[in-house]
Write a structure and sequence with these properties.
Blueprint lengths: L2 H6 E11 L7 E6 L20 E4 L28 E4 L1 E4 H8 L3 H7 L2 E5 L7 H13 L3 E6 L8 H7 L2 E5 L5 H8 L3 H13 L4 E7 L7 H14 L3 E6 L5 H6 L14 H13 L3 E4 L3
Parallel strand pairs: 2-6, 6-7, 7-8, 8-9, 9-10, 10-11
Antiparallel strand pairs: 1-2, 1-5, 3-4
Helix pairs in contact: 2-4, 4-5, 8-10
Amino acid sequence: MSSNRAASSAIVTNVQRYSLHDGGGIRTVAFLKGCPFTCPWCCNPENLSFEPELSLKENLCIHCSPRPGGALCTTPVELCPTRAKEIMGTKRDVNDLLEEVLRDRIFFEESGGGVTLSGGEALAREPFVQAFFTAAKAQGLHTALETTLALPLRDAKALVEVVDSFLVDFKIADRDASKKLLGLDPDVRDANIRTILSMGASVIARMPIVPGFTDGLDNVRAHAAKLCELGIVRADVLPFHQLGENKYSYVGRPYTLHDLKPPSDEQIAKIVAILEKAGLSVVIDGE
């Protein structure tokens, strides 16, 4: 894909309106398709592949076409009477997506909200992120980017100029464990954070609390120390949930955490106490 095409368009799976936990105020969140990482608890499995893919919701299927021997449904997507079958991911260009987002301008103005790009990993499509946020800023919109920040940046200075808030994931603190399980190098993230902070960026840490993976108190303490070292003052604690569980079957991906329970209120309280003791401002579920 040429750089011009990469900047002007991206594959988008969903545009979520009236979001309250993705950057402040009422926000419209566009989810960009594609992620190079492998978090077992990902709640957006439809955004892992970089290409549009078929989704089939068996609970909506009325078996309107023959499926001998368990064969896949042969009804064309456009003819599916219950919308059980659909293509996840539509190519959107900057102007098209911005036009949709601007329909919510009144909510942004009244609540101090704006537009957020998420994923997948939105930075895997950095040229599009840059182009879209440049256009959004020209319209006076507040912009936020949800990201691991664990990919090499093409143009950090240009990105900082158009992103009002970087919402950056802190998952597994141990580098070897993070690279092995998630394919994510926290050293790359931290180097990028230092770079953008030196340019005046606003960074909020996002800490998904996933039992058995990220909820260990030593992991939390390591994150707290790292945030203080980097100069980040706020951490959003995001308790694990199972809201994305069914989506794995829709796109034919295995899911291994069916039996995992959300962290208890007591566990979250211990985590918050550690972060606050380190001098961090803590928000549960973000805002």
